[in-house]
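question for whoever is on the cluster today: can someone run the full assembly for these? two chains, 364 residues total. i dont have access anymore since they changed the login thing
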Amino acid sequence: MFLSLKGSLNTKFFRFKGILDSYAGASAAYSLRRLSKVASSVVRVRRSSDNFEQDFTAAQVSNGTLESFCGVGDGFVATWYDQSGNGNHAAQPTTTEQPKIVDGGSLVADGLDFDGVNDGLFGSHILNTDDVLYAAVVAKNKNFSGRRWYVGNVFYNAFNDNGGFAVEENTFNRTGNIAGWLDDRGVNDAVQDGLSSLTQNQVHLLSFDLSNGSSKFHLDGSLVNTFSTSMNSEDGGGVLNIGNIPAGSAGLEGSIKEIIIYNSDQSANRAAIEDNINAHYNIYP
Amino acid sequence: MSYLLYPTEQDAWDRSEQEGIAQGLAYHTKGQGSRYVSSPKETIDGLWALDVTGYDLDELEESTVTLDVTFPQPTEDLM
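^ ran it for u. tokens below:
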């Protein structure tokens, strides 16, 4: 009787603490796992059988509820909810351009599956502070040919008035690069070599933190490169793109499990954030 | 893929939305979520091609569907 009561109390007073609770202040965060205690639905899915849509929590994604909802058909993501609390949800209103999450009644491996042609999710402008950024992306690329967009928020308003960041293969059409930052195009923009460090068809954790004029690019928890750069945030410029660019010519053929972005200095927290991510996904030893 | 060609992008979006209504997409029944079935793309002729594969077409549309559409090569713009 006593043990039963103790178990009940433990359950009653258990409080979930996610990565965004431990490291507050994210600008946008997307995942199929629960990232914060205030997060409820993580994704909105349209099933192929009748186009009906429904929101799902992280638990419902993993416990079979989502698969039951889709029956023997497919499920496509209409909205990937931002778990940061900022309402920067990423959506795709066109059915033929929604990434797949359930294939023939089974949850797709490794997150949201992008077809490499026209799938993509689009949100709002998430940057409002210059020269500080931390972005972590857990993704798998099946096709290393051409441009393949993971995530970014870039804009080109006019010469010397550009900004934002991108994580993509052959960043800004520069062969071999994997990430870029823009500040006054042609003056202070920068790209990160590192594509050669990636393995095709393998899940990686890519991240960079920009602060104090220095950007560090990490791959699977290890530092790849450090160099000087800056970034223009310009509130109102461009929107967040996931899996493709608006023109639709840089589609990722692969999958994305998680994206977490801070428009602040997270250099002191980077290692702990990535330990948390790796502990959940077991990406590298 | 089979396409219908429209003189303006808006005309093509309107047809895509019409099909979305016919298919009962969530935006039109619940006020949020999926709204369009497919997206128009500009052709080299300056027309707007809408992929209507799977659409419920009327007789006039069926008579004007084309498989022969040429799109411009991707530009080298950064974005």
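summary bc i know u wont read the tokens: The helical segments of chain B are 9-22, 26-29, 59-64. Chain B touches chain A through 22 residues (CB under 8 Å).
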